[in-house]
Fold Threonine synthase.
Amino acid sequence: MVLKYESTRNRSVNVRPSEAVVKGLSDDGGLFVPRALDQFKIDIKEMCTLGFHDTAKKILRLFFPDFTEEQINDSVMNAYDSKFDDEAIVPVKKVGDQFIMELFHGSTIAFKDIALSILPHLMKKAQSNCNMEEDIVILTATSGDTGKAALEGFKNVEGTKIIVFYPNDGVSPVQEKQMVTTEGENTYVVAVEGNFDDAQTAVKEILNDSALREKLGDMGMKFSSANSINIGRLVPQISYYFSTYADLVKRAEIKIGEAINFVVPTGNFGNILACYFAKQLGLPVGKLICAANENNVLYDFLSTGIYDINRAFKKTMSPSMDILISSNLERLLYFMSDKDNAYVAELMKDLKTEKRYEVNDAIKVKLKNEFWSSYCSEADTAMTVKAVYEAYDYVLDTHTAVAYKVYEDYLSATGDPRKTVILSTASPFKFTGSVYKALFGETETEELELMQALSAKTGVSVPQQIEGLGERKVLHDRFCTPETMSDEILKILSDKEQK
Ligand SMILES: *Cc1c(COP(=O)(O)O)cnc(C)c1O
């Protein structure tokens, strides 16, 4: 049997794994999913003997069987190399009684590096597997972290161009500076008036615009996506759930087969969906704990079954989670509705027209069984950064603090004795301003200059990945509105001058 990916919204759309990676999004607006997911099985005993690289290879082979063994090995070894400042790639630390999975040791010090270090390799190989001649144009909307990680991943990759759109006032100064100083002949960064949802919605519409696709075809180019709507981005994220589990087994913290919980600071629902996939593959997972910030649309959904974006968008100190439309939820709905494509299509239509949908009772029950959710206020986020530092001398970033606080809520609500891993999705230096303020109070100093002060006061060194960031030269200053995004793309792509 050759594994096929279908659209969440249409069962008759069927593509091979490589094509799903190259396309990014199905033409009908749906996301690619493997119908046969429940037939994939992993030998957990064997997995527990493997390190990160071999775990990643096993997972990728399962999801991308039309790649050769060599293609998979090559992708994994080139992605997870000395770009990471920790040999373990994803080390697990013990802080008090809690386990913290540190996902921020890659080149842009956020968890997006895990997937985006490997996606360009997978995409190039997928392109050759599909005999595709066109250049790939990666379109990416970012709430801050995806953008830089994707730029670093695709920078100077032959046969690709990457265009990143970020919300003009929606990212941290460190995030913005990281993006606009990106080098590379094929990288473009554009500030968009509006918030992340505006940018993401516009990107999805552009990817679905058949006239524009045709224009691109005439230029010998093809769009793809580096957002977590791309299955090639999602699958690599499954690896660290297994490698962390194996790590805890090796350290004799748990026995093989023992269920553990994961707490995931959630935005676009990619990371936590990878956990759901891991569980489907046989990883012993108890509850998937979904941590939200004040944009608590997911908390409401997981508690009521009603997804409602008729609400104000809030800017918080955990900006990578400032999202109202969580794209990957669509994949969860597909699996939870027993792969009912028509039903998913209907819900997505409701979301578009009514800005709201409600799932049926069967799904509500499943959601309750699998997930637990809560959300963390701005004040509690800051308080948690400070409390954890004072108690354990460990500096949390703001997103991780949201997860930490939600886990405390979970413990007091349930008393669940299972071992639990909190996912840490960014280095505290990526959000220096908010972290410094939470620990030491207000300051007049600009964020980029605060890094040294944060380091001096906490004794944690500034990651070498962002050292000297303040002095780097700004190389990108494009700006547009959501309405003019497609014009901006055409301008960039038809630009004859060298950058
Ligand atoms: C992207 C991001 C998240 C949210 O992850 P999703 O997969 O979008 O749910 C959380 N924290 C940080 C630091 C991020 O960059």
User: Anything to note?
Assistant: The domain at 92-108+234-459 is CATH 3.40.50.1100 (Rossmann fold).
